Amino acid sequence: MTPFAALHHKDTPLLLPNAWDHASARALADQGFRAIGTTSLGVAAAAGLPDGAPDLRDETLRLALALGSEPYLLSVDAGDGHSDAPDEVGEFAQELAAVGVVGINLEDSLGSVALHAAKIEAVKSAAPGLFVNARTDTYWLGDGEGTIDRLDAYQRAGTDGVFVPGLTDSEGIAALAERLDVPLNILYSPTGPTVPQLADLGVRRVSLGSFLYRRALGAALDAVAEIRAGRSPLGTAPSYDEVDAFSRREAT
């Protein structure tokens, strides 16, 4: 079992914050997080691209190259693998692993179950040590129908974990966790169960997705509104020197 996989089998769930650039990743690592994820929305927005754009493959690889050699475990949001060809998805996974990435998310977007399973198999063949977190969008884009059938297929394909964003019902989460043979990843929701509650429900990984990026943008908008109104903005902000240090690869 790899060190990253082992984090999914602790007494408490792996809380995975998601970064969108080098500075945000280093800032989170300095808070003691052993593993950091990326958020495709944050990466895309920072590059002026819509989430899911074809060019996001190159941006994802560029960020992985910047972050993969850092002293924390990096998991990358790879969307649908940026290809409908399983072999190409496997090659992309191999490129990510080569620069130090230890895990990826692969989402099905409610597409073909067989195709997504083939992508998982291709990744596990091309990069056996990479932790594959197979995401199904049955709750994110639908009403949850077909969740078990999809996840069973992905487990048979060799996925190391499964991700079900949009599922926030405690009973549903507990029933799903009980049914699975691999760790269950849930997307944190401010209106859903807390991390301790998710732990009690059997969840092994809690992702923050784009939440931190959106909160950062919200804080910036709140601050400029206060300044424009003649008030001092509330909240905290790292100093210039601190951010400059976060942006340096040799920062500790």
TrEMBL record:
Q: Keywords on this record?
A: Lyase
Q: Which CDD domains does this one have?
A: ICL_PEPM (cd00377)
Q: Which InterPro entries match?
A: ICL/PEPM, Pyrv/PenolPyrv_kinase-like_dom, Pyrv_kinase-like_dom_sf
The record lists the organism as Streptomyces muensis
GO MF annotations in UniProt: lyase activity
UniProt-listed Pfam families: PEP_mutase
Q: What protein name does the entry list? A: Isocitrate lyase/phosphoenolpyruvate mutase family protein
